[in-house]
Amino acid sequence: MRSILLEILYEWSKIPYQKWFKKEDPWDIPVSQLLRYPQTSLGFHLGSFLLQHDFTPQPKLENHDVFHVLTKTGITVPEEISMQYYLLGNGKKSAYLYTVIFIGTVLYPDKFRVFRNAFKQGRNAYSFHQLDFKKLLDQSLDTIRTTFLIATSCK
Q1: pTM of the model
Q2: b (16+ CB within 10 A) / e for 144-155
Q3: pLDDT beyond 80 at 92
Q4: Does 39 reside within a domain?
Q5: In angstroms, how far is the first alpha carbon of the chain from the final one?
Q6: What CA–CA distance (Å, rounded) separates 71 from 54?
Q7: What distance in Å separates the CA atoms of residue 137 and residue 32, rounded to the nearest whole number?
């Protein structure tokens, strides 16, 4: 029930968030184009992630899926909350992030240890949340993770 509540809140808030809070231009890169990047690249892994989960890139929200790829975070609701804790630890600040963390913590107090560990992992990584990932799509995923000390056990 708590997962359903959060998914409904996400769907309800996604469009206004994209419209009023996200200032970036959409990437306009289809999954098929991402899959043409070298197999070791961030672009290829992003395309594979989207294909695996039958997702399409959400305009202005592409970085969110990149964060999943970089941290190897799954897509369940607790994993989504965990990733927001990771990003908070990495220095990301947004009303949306704070809202997800607040509601997620209230609804999933049994996962607090996981959330705290994700926060610590984000804090231990070099700041990456603000990067222009569209410009890094051709770069090696492993190199990006290594360079920024991105831990991949955000579970």
Answers
A1: 0.86
A2: bbeebebbeebe
A3: yes
A4: yes
A5: 20
A6: 19
A7: 14
